[in-house]
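Long-time lurker. I teach an intro course on protein structure, and each term I like to show students one example going from raw sequence to a predicted 3D structure in token notation. This year I'd like something fresh instead of my usual example. Would anyone be willing to generate the tokens for the chain below so I can use it in lecture? Attribution to the forum is fine with me.
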Amino acid sequence: MGVAVSMFGGAQPRVVWCLPVLLLLNGCGEAGPPCDSAEVRHSVVRLVADNSDNSLLKFAIENSSSIAEMLDHANAEADKSAIRDKAKQAATYALDDNILVNSSSGRAASCTGVIGVSVGDTSAQKEVEFKVEQQADGKISVSVKPFLF
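-- Reply from a regular --
Happy to contribute to a lecture. Here you go:
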């Protein structure tokens, strides 16, 4: 508790309650790393896209009528495999703008967002959970919880 004297209202002292306000503004602990930074968003998309067992991508390829049409016209299994591989390489991913922070403490945060993939004429979305950790050297590491589609 402190005492301040207003220069405009005469010399009457008034109490300034700054300590409780500062505690409310500052919080009681260190906030975790941001879940929605460009670096984190890029890492989440890369981790999902680079997953060789990506069930979201498999679902989109299996449900794409344009991919199915190309597969119907392919004769050899090698041609069909090449079509699927090309579709995987051409897939585009996006992480929704709305990222939720499930929990945050110290140097770690647990987050949830919706990731989408587009393949041919089909798009699919799935909720994805990920963890963001800030290392002692300031670098950020991201891990994505595996999901089924």
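Some talking points for your students: The chain has one domain: 38-144. The longest helix spans residues 77-90.
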